[in-house]
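Pair request: fold both.
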Amino acid sequence: MSAPCVAAFVPPPSAISSHVSSTILFAGGFGTAKSKSAPKKKANKKSKSSILSDIQVDEAPKQSTPKLDRFGLPIPTEDDIFPPLTSDDGARVPVSDGDEFNKEDVAEALQHHIGVNLDIFDENGQSIHEEKSNRWKLKLLHQDPPVLSVENFFSEADVEQYKSMIESNEGNNGGGNGDAVQLSSPTFSSSLSLSRRTSTTWFCKYESMSCLLAKAQALLNVDLKQMEEPQLVRYRTGEEFSWHYDEIPSAQLSNGGQRLATLLVYLNDLDKDRGGGTVFRDLKSPFNESNKRKKKGSSKGNGNQLTVRPKSGTALVFFPAFKDGKPDPRTIHKGEVALDTKMIAQLWIHEKEYQASVPENNLQADAANGVREELERLGVSNVM
């Protein structure tokens, strides 16, 4: 996932000054000449250490010195780049306990976003398309901002097709005639980004990803022209994508406008102790560590960050911006360090028509026939 980030510089701290606040009167005291006529009174004589103990010194507050770059400027911290949310960023509402699917809850959650085509789901969240063996199961994972999952979004055959594309296009940097071009997981440019992304991405030809595009169109009810280049991503052991937003920097909105939706599909399973989950920093969930609902009356799982574990064929959907194009900072997320190989297919939906740049001459129109055939095979073209 792309990760535009905007940093806020923090000016260097001012010099620290220390001072002594107490003023001590030394009349006839420490350091003065002794009088010969004065009798010695040992009992009332104060020692040097006792006098010093009366002096109260206000110590200057300790301040940590910021790390500087080679130009002597403070290096932006994570909080500078990804500031904590404030009340101005809006409420965060987790889903309530229970496994029940409620269409009205989903519709309410999506009222300010491009939404999901709920006409292709029944009252239990099951899709109504004709491929009965691979019916989708829609789940609301977070109410506001909305985060959803779709189980069985890819069939086993779909998964194997895209995994084989990764293998067949390994090392293809655009010089060959493959279906995808391999890049070291770029993001929309931001010189101040602190995000770490160590995965590998393949930018794919639209015509080679008709299955993903058709199912995305059926699910989100959007035009092919709004779709960014479909991508395949592989994280090897130890690789990650740290905290980031999926929004696009304002300077680069001329091509398609803002990203309104993120759709990613996991191509393999990863157990909970193998990392690789998609974690939302500021969203909470009533899920426990095994990603199952907690039992009623149990506190287990309370306060957990919303974490979606990779499950082969399952899609994850969330919205980096509202339908008016305003970015939603509440959707900041990361891909955990993977302790085994993790693979995903991903797609972003824009406000307006988007023009692809990789691979060369990559056009959404080239996928139109394949998408139409896939929609007819699914049996959902009549409810779009």
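--- second member of the pair ---
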Amino acid sequence: SSKITSDATATRLQEATPQITQTNALTPVYSNRIYCMVPASATVNQLKFQHIKAFDFILATWGSRCDVIKFFVNNVPGLPNHYTPKKEQDGAKLFAIGGSHRGENGAPVVGVDMQRSDCDLRNDGKCRNIWEKVWRSWAYVQKNDLHTADWFLKVDFDTYLFVENLKDFLLPYNPAEGWYLGHNVYHHVPHGGPVFNQGGATVFSNKALDLMGGEFNKMKPRIGKTHTWVKDCLDRDGPQEELGVAGCLLSLNITASPMTDSEGRERITPFQLHSHLRLLRKDGPDGWFWKGKPETVPDGTNCCADDLIAVHGYKNSEAVRFFDYEHFEKAYSNLRNKMKAIQN
């Protein structure tokens, strides 16, 4: 279980107490407002002149279905506090579903005060300090936005999120308990590390985010320091945000829980879906993906749940549009045609 075993740490849930309704005496249903935190590398000019197509596609598809969505980038002089999609030329076609589209209004931009270089140019390949950007982003959310949602997600810009499936999955989970949910990865366990959730899409309850963010807001930078993966919560150089998050949560007695279905099939895929369909345990049992993963987790064409929550690794806009068309536009078109038939 990933529930917190101690209530020693005070929380700030007064403004975010979940609304609970009862479907029957045994099944409570909890509030499931979703906050999507999207970290990204972007220059001021890219934001000012709307040259970030990834942001446009996010807002035109899954991003508009989050209750709250914000983009987190490096805080530099001249940074705009809001991103609005470009509607000229091809951009206008993105928001053509059923009239007005919530995503057209854009989303807030939060500047993260990084102490290390994010190395946008990637000139040496060794300075992607993703961990610092992620922990500072969550520190901001805990301090400023905790009351706005019940569940908080870190979502990569190349992830497609099925928000409705996520909301359905979360209904029986209490956001006032400490939950850290996602695609579990086990290969660091033999070396003393924690089970962690792959970073394409990771879900935190309000309670977990409050406790974790509280630790982040007290954390002092350790520029140049390396990190040993033990039960602690440390700032450090480098990109490994998944292990950083898992180590911090473990120090708070919160452990990673899976988001698999009743057959053990994954609802979140670290790779593109077609890659998972070809991924067989027997072909690489000692690789990082399969190492330590329970034998009950199926592979190959039985890898993934019917009600997927997130698929990662889609930088191609056409693939994103395919998911959105199959999941929403086709259904919308079919419903509209049925309504016309009834009216006639």
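Observation on the second member. The radius of gyration is 20 Å.
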